């Protein structure tokens, strides 16, 4: 009986001695999760929250972004079709480049996908997609309202 208990304790101590996964794998899942979260907000029509989660917004206002996204007939596919073939091409402390296939639903009778690179930036402790990538996937560009210059003579 004592030998069984000693063997059991030895087994338990061995299991706890196995190293935990490398931080890189959690970073990869963080990148993929950031991509997934942005696509979910888009698919659900939560454009204001999506705007807040994007980097490199430039001079595009929240209202311009929401209007542009509402006018797009393209939405990300759901579930297992949303992201596939995900891989990290380059990762630095504040930026990363990933490669993925994104499933898209353009109309009720037509669906497709886009496979390409995406840039993500780290903001505090979370990864964020760039606004330009979302707009390209949506097949649209944000309309920038230009100020009218009046020249006085």
Give keywords:
alpha+beta, 153 residues, globular
Written account of the structure:
- It is a single chain.
- The chain has 153 residues and is α+β, with helices and mostly antiparallel strands.
- The chain has five helices and five strands.
- It has helices spanning 2-17, 23-43, 47-52, 62-71, 131-138; strands at 75-76, 83-91, 95-107, 110-123, 126-129.
- Strands 1, 2, 3, 4 and 5 form a five-stranded antiparallel β-sheet that branches.
- The N and C termini lie far apart (104 Å).
- 20% of the residues are buried.
- Mean pLDDT is 82; it is low at 17-24 and 145-150.
What is this structure's SSE topology?
Blueprint: H1 2-17, H2 23-43, H3 47-52, H4 62-71, E1 75-76, E2 83-91, E3 95-107, E4 110-123, E5 126-129, H5 131-138
Summarize this entry quickly.
This protein is of the alpha+beta class and 153 residues long.
By DSSP (H or I, 4+ residues per run), the number of helices equals 5
Query: Low-confidence parts, pLDDT < 50 over ≥5 residues?
Result: 17-24, 145-150
Separation, N- and C-terminal Cα atoms:
104 Å
- Radius of gyration (CA) equals 22 Å
Order of helices and strands: HHHHEEEEEH
Q: Estimate the helix proportion, in percent.
A: 25-40%
């Amino acid at each position: 009986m004592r030998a069984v208990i000693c063997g059991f304790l030895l087994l338990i101590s061995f299991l706890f001695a196995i190293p935990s996964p490398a931080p890189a794998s959690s970073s990869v899942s963080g990148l993929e999760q950031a991509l997934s979260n942005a696509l979910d907000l888009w698919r659900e029509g939560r454009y204001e929250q999506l705007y807040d989660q994007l980097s490199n917004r430039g001079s595009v206002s929240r209202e311009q972004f929401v209007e542009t996204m509402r006018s797009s007939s393209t939405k990300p596919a759901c579930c297992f079709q949303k992201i596939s073939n995900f891989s990290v091409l380059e990762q630095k402390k504040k930026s990363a480049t990933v490669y993925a296939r994104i499933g898209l639903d353009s109309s009720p009778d037509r669906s497709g996908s886009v496979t390409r690179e995406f840039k993500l930036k780290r903001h505090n402790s979370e990864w964020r997609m760039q606004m330009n990538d979302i707009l390209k996937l949506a097949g649209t560009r944000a309309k920038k309202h230009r100020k009218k210059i009046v020249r006085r003579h």
